[in-house]
Amino acid sequence: MRPDTDQPTRRVLEFWIVAGLAAFLMGLSKGGVPMIAILAVPLMSLFMNPALAAGLLLPIYIVADMYAVYLFRRAFSLRNLRTLLPGAIVGILIGFAAVSYVPGDAGKLLVAGIGIYYLITSLRRRFSGNPVSPRPADVPRGLFWGTVAGLTSYISHAGGPPYQAYVLPQKLDKMVYLGTTTIFFTVVNLLKVPPFILAGQITWDSATQAIWLVPFALAGAWTGSRISRALPERIFYMLIEIALAVVSVKLLYEVLLA
Questions:
Q1: What stretches of 31-173 show up as alpha helix (H) in DSSP?
Q2: CA–CA distance from 31 to each of 2, 37, 68, 90 (Å)?
Q3: What is the pLDDT of residue 84?
């Protein structure tokens, strides 16, 4: 029987198609389409270890972050950033020190629990019939949620739900929310680079592959920015909460059923 010499070539082609799609989805998320980037690592995990997939995608995240900062640079909450970022630094340091001892599933359960708790609380307030006033930013809660977001972002690349639990109740203007979110996660992702290199998740080979995927991420960021700017604010925040629910359920499924 003649061997199928096309199989390796087909596998490589499939890898680059999926990698391009993952990079585009990451860009969409950075451009303001709520949390669709959660699909990127699972897609890449079809071809490689999830930890290596995260390492491959992190430089692409950062490039898309930089472009997103340019897109949303005119509006952001300095008060939130001053509170959240010191907490995130602490969370990343904790994650780096404890990553060998904390199972990945524990991080996923923590993130899923936070997301579901926030959603249940939000729905209960809405159906109570009482108007929900914006909850202002404050230092103790900001430091706490920033630390949790930094920790879960480092361990399982899922810093979104803890961040949303703190920021969404503030009911920020849509563009202020986008600018604040973009700057926060840009800094968080940059801080994750040195420990990722030390852990062998980012190598010269993965960085070379990442370069070829950058155009897909930039195209996604540009597309996402057009979509997010066109969405009415009420629909925009509704989509964020729906995405938060999907992410939380997905993480629970991965831990309990997959």
A1: 40-44, 50-71, 78-98, 104-127, 139-156, 160-167
A2: 48, 11, 6, 27
A3: 96
